Amino acid sequence: xxxxxxxxxxxxxxxxxxxxxxxxxxxxxxxxxxxxxxxxxxxxxxxxxxxxxxxxxxxxxxxxxxxxxxxxxxxxxxxxxxxxxxxxxxxxxxxxxxxxxxxxxxxxxxxxxxxxxxxxxxxxxxxxxxxxxxxxxxxxxxxxxxxxxxxxxxxxxxxxxxxxxxxxxxxxxxxxxxxxxxxxxxxxxxxxxxxxxxxxxxxxxxxxxxxxxxxxxxxxxxxxxxxxxxxxxxxxxxxxxxxxxxxxxxxxxxxxxxxxxxxxxxxxxxxxxxxxxxxxxxxxxxxxxxxxxxxxxxxxxxxxxxxxxxxxxxxxxxxxxxxxxxxxxxxxxxxxxxxxxxxxxxxxxxxxxxxxxxxxxxxxxxxxxxxxxxxxxxxxxxxxxxxxxxxxxxxxxxxxxxxxxxxxxxxxxxxxxxxxxxxxxxxxxxxxxxxxxxxxxxxxxxxxxxxxxxxxxxxxxxxxxxxxxxxxxxxxxxxxxxxxxxxxxxxxxxxxxxxxxxxxxxxxxxxxx
Length: 513
Known about the structure:
Helices cover 74% and strands 3% of the residues.
């Protein structure tokens, strides 16, 4: 059932209004920060209020205006969109509170502009999640790029300006390819509306055009998700304040890139067409390459934020790999990994920021014994690190287990091997941080005067670390995000996988014989 309601636009608009109010209250920091927190809570409540109906099979939909007779500026709450919207809107609360403590503790300048741009980014992320068609998706996708730019070069140093320009070159140029692809889709299909299982068919255009079009549509998402070799902007963007890094990696930008690929695979092309074209397999191998290489690079990074950045590049490729499998469990794992990675990676970045603000240390080699002075911070870091490696009872295990089963589902043991190796590499580049923090001796005694970070930073860290554990034991805790992922995955693969399963089973049986 379709429910005509303006609620999806209210979910997007509340933080846009907050951005305007924040700009007006620049000389009153307490009021400015109150708008940030209030907007995050209201946004979450609006988004969460739509979940029950979506779980029951209904969608909220509203068209603000029509562009053509078949394309409108439309928001729609399908299951996968609600999944991303729930993650973005909820995490806006802890990262917003954390940002207040960080910006004040670090005595950052231009805080008014920072919080205003932050609010616009969250609006764009929710708009991307709830976009009902490719054109609406493109508008919010580009709004996210523009709104993130001032956050990346917030420090106004030469390095920050260079990183900001690099970010724009990567994201705006590929964004125009997305726009071009959107135009071609409209020309050959006459519609841009997302449809579970895809709306493009083989008889709409020559095979070569459909293959080129797939590249045009996915390259923008691949850039934002940091898929190699299109990842260059992401490590450079770590020059931004840590709350921005948390926003980039856990809430908005890289998640929007991964979500873009899920939309194109599942809601524009569909598994059946992609299987015929062979395009998804190419994307899957790029994801495999990225998972392994980024993990190896991460091991060599001494700067904490850069190590976490390369970790993100690899971890988001799990989403791409799972979606490219074109199977129910692979798609389920890909969708739920958006949730899992978000809560774990935001914990890791907030821990890194707490160390930077408290001790002004950014390099791992300088953190000997710091865990004894900041045991809560590094306890939370350890929980999230174990989850990134896929350890049981942390949320990362749930999504990675489904992707692993998806590899078995399609008869691809090599993908399984890659996932196992990646888990070992994850332990190799994150657990040494925990070892250095807790078990290495502080020879100089320089950390003796330090303690835990400001409570406005510590409480959000504890919240997201606890959530990593809770969702690892009860993946449907709260608003049933796992159910949303399962509904979406089944809808995308319905009608395709039954025939694919026959082929896979027959191949496996033949191999055994």
